[in-house]
Amino acid sequence: MADLFMFIARKFGKEDGLKRRTTYTVRLSFDLATNVAPGLIGIGGSLGGSVYVKAGVVTSDPAPAVGGDGYYRVSFDKGNQAGGGNAPVVLGNIEKTGSQDDSYEYKSFQHECEITTGDRAEAWVVIGTDSGFEGLTQLYYTNIRVTFVPR
Fold first, then answer.
1. Which candidate, 36, 88, 142, 143, has a CA 20 to 30 Å from the CA of 10?
2. All domains in the chain, ordered by first residue
3. CA–CA dist 88, 109 (Å, integer)
4. Which of 112, 118, 108, 85 shows the shortest CA–CA distance to 12?
5. Model confidence, pTM
6. E-assigned strands of 22-138?
7. Taking a C-beta distance cutoff of 8 angstroms, is the pair 114, 24 a contact?
8. Is 141:14 a contact under the CB 8 Å cutoff?
């Protein structure tokens, strides 16, 4: 079994206006450019339907760690493939909704959650894909917008 979680992350902190031990509503939106037509069958799963888009906010550095089984894991609960974790959560998949050809198409995603910062006033926004498909996946993330609103 070969699963892969590919992600990007950005740290936000005091330099971005976050305060210690404060609860925020976080609004996140982004576009993903994908060229995967719907309904394709692939190794391990569908080329698009088995590649799940996830996003969320975590309060610790999303560093890789080696698990007890010797495999690399992330330091937060991302769930597994279609199953969401505490953060990030599943927002959809990478299948296009328009054309059947191999041209790229933008898909828009939005997510809203609450987070409480710790003593360091830090939070990491995480956007990625959790894949059951066992082949090459090429994606482009753009128009990423993040807003922290104190409660």
1. 36
2. 4-150 (2.60.120)
3. 13
4. 118
5. 0.90
6. 23-34, 51-58, 64-66, 72-74, 79-80, 83-84, 89-93, 105-116, 123-131
7. yes
8. no
